[in-house]
Amino acid sequence: DLITIAFGLRNVTDKNAALRSMYQSLKPGGRLLILEFSKPIFEPLAKIYDAYSFSLLPAMGKLVANDSESYRYLAESIRMHPDQDTLKDMMVEAGFERCDYHNLTGGIVALHRGFRF
After folding, report:
1. Which residue among 40, 71, 97, 107 is the one 20 to 30 A from 79 at the CA level?
2. Cα 26–Cα 23–Cα 93 angle in degrees, nearest 5
3. Do residues 39 and 103 touch, judged by C-beta distance below 8 A?
């Protein structure tokens, strides 16, 4: 049994309720995988990524899609999303066990995993 969500949890208003619902939906032995934007773990990368997200990305959105606001929302939703350790703690609070995560692209994206036993 497996539940996956990719680049969607940050748009959920009540993440704790969503995680509890995912836990309840899984059969024992099932796992949850969450692929989501996260927080860069290398400070110089974080500064570059922040500048890109809040300056260049909305400007490109305006140029390509005539819609800078959607790209500004993307950057803001990423910033408001819990960091790696906080999301892991939220998964544990929802009942998941053996929770861990793997940073990808220096933490810009993280893959979280938890099990229901």
Report:
1. 97
2. 155
3. no
Q: Structure pTM?
A: 0.93
Percentage above 70 pLDDT, the chain = 100
74 plus 85 within the same structural domain = no
Among the listed residues 76, 74, 96, the one whose alpha carbon sits nearest the alpha carbon of residue 20:
96
pLDDT tens-digit map of 81-111:
999 999 999 999 999 999 999 999 999 999 9
Question: Phi then psi for 35, rounded to 5 degrees?
Answer: -105, 120
In this structure, the answer to whether residues 13 and 70 fall within a common structural domain is no
The bridge status of strand 97-104 relative to strand 109-115 is antiparallel
Tokens of 26: 């899984």
Q: 51 with 61, same domain? A: yes
